[in-house]
Design a protein that fits this description.
The chain is 28% helix and 33% strand. It has helices at residues 19-28, 69-72, 91-95, 97-107, 128-138, 153-169, and strands at residues 2-13, 41-50, 53-62, 81-87, 113-119, 141-144, 182-190, 196-205. The radius of gyration is 18 Å and the shape is globular.
Length: 206
């Protein structure tokens, strides 16, 4: 059986925390030393094959500038995963995590998957105990990354896929229109010549 999984993801965090840099490193394996701030919202689509399943990840990369808040709020709905980024060399971006969490709690559904991501771990200056407290207080998982030096970027997206799989299998989350998650299962069937083909759309979970 092959799963075709659709995941909707949004990246949140202060301007220049590295949201676009993380995506560019993963998608294109590139990094710019002079990144431009995202204006409003940009869209990415990733197709990842893992565990004999196909994952289509639809990603909204948002601006961290306050003037775009009203626009960005419209993208909080029907989201499966939030990547909440902060700059590990910038205390202000870390302190503003509470602002982003308040927005998530207000506009997103209850079973949203949130991954706290500390970018620029190569120049981190924020105390680990402070980060651990935020994670404990808000029940968040955390990962340090560096878009510049390609540290843990692939791991980040792999852990997201693994967490989605785990929560679906254990019925912690159920695919539905509110969380933007959908799964279509296909069966591999052998014909008389022992050639494999996929019978699509045999079972659909909306």
């Amino acid at each position: 059986m092959v799963k075709n999984v659709k995941i909707k993801m949004i990246l949140l965090g202060d301007a220049y925390s590295g949201k676009t840099s993380v995506l560019n490193r993963y998608v294109n394996n590139t990094f710019s030393n002079s990144p431009k701030s995202t204006i409003g919202v940009d869209f990415f689509k990733l197709d990842i094959n893992k565990n004999e399943s196909n994952y289509n990840i639809y990603i909204w990369d948002t601006s961290g500038q306050e003037k775009f808040d009203s626009i960005i709020r419209t993208y909080y709905r029907n989201i499966t995963v939030v990547l909440l980024l902060f700059d590990m060399s910038n205390l202000k971006s870390f302190n503003n995590i509470s602002h982003w969490i308040d927005n998530i709690n207000h506009y997103c559904h209850d079973n949203i998957i949130i991954k706290l991501v500390g970018n620029k771990c190569d120049i981190k200056s924020i105390d680990t105990e402070m980060i651990n407290k935020v994670c404990l207080d808000n029940n968040l998982s955390f990962l340090e990354v560096s878009a510049k030096y390609n540290i843990n970027i692939k791991t980040l997206f792999n852990t997201i896929i693994d967490e989605v799989d785990y929560k679906v299998i254990n019925k912690i989350i159920t695919p539905n229109k509110d969380n933007g998650l959908s799964i279509i299962e296909s069966f591999k069937i052998h014909d008389v010549k022992n050639k494999q083909f996929k019978k699509k759309n045999c079972c659909t979970i909306l």
